[in-house]
Design a protein that fits this description.
Helix content: 25-40%
Oligomer: single chain
Shape: globular
Number of strands: 11
CATH topology: Jelly Rolls
């Protein structure tokens, strides 16, 4: 019986430590669904927080002290959707903006096909801003343009572009099921 007391004490300590470790773990990132856009974010990555998710509006902010917003839009089905043409149009818009500078573009691979990003700077009433735009096909594969626009202070692209790519990697199509059925990602 005396040998059982130290074993019980050791088990109690292990159990307490395991419970403390479980309590210290952060909750899993939240799933974000937008039925109007037929889009879901499987796990919202850091540093993003939902700023607005109503109707066809899906917007995120960040936990960065310097701020930052991501706006997500989905266009109507478009025959012959040309992502490169969208990048060229964005380049022209950056160059035409007050103080505008086009910083380049790249082709990306996403879980739902090719995408492109375009990055540039421009002047606003409150100072300079930098944006990274991502143009992709909607994850549902139905020829709709999916656009993500990340606006942040200039000079932070080394942090912000990978964050935006992480968000894109969590996107998936979302279909609202008939009443009584559970919604399913597709």
């Amino acid at each position: 019986m005396k040998a059982a007391a130290p074993v019980a004490a050791a088990l109690a300590l292990l159990l307490a430590a395991a419970c403390r470790e479980a309590a210290d773990e952060a909750p899993p990132p939240a799933r974000v669904e937008n039925a109007a856009l037929e889009l879901a974010v499987a796990r919202l990555p850091e540093p993003f927080l939902v700023a607005e998710n109503a109707g066809s509006t899906l917007r995120f902010t960040t936990t960065h002290e310097t701020g930052g917003t991501v706006e997500v839009t989905v266009g109507e089905p478009e025959y012959g959707l040309n992502l490169v043409a969208k990048v060229q149009k964005r380049r022209a818009a950056f160059e035409a903006a007050p103080g505008g500078e086009y910083k380049g573009s790249r082709e990306l691979g996403t879980p739902f096909g090719p995408a492109y990003y375009a990055r540039g700077l421009y002047d606003t009433e409150s100072g300079r801003a930098e944006q990274t735009w991502i143009f992709a096909l909607h994850p549902a594969g139905d020829s709709r343009l999916l656009t993500l626009i990340y606006t942040y202070p200039p000079g932070e692209e080394q942090i912000r572009v990978p964050e935006l790519l992480g968000l894109v990697g969590e996107l998936e199509a979302f279909v609202v099921a008939a009443p009584g059925d559970a919604p399913e990602p597709r």
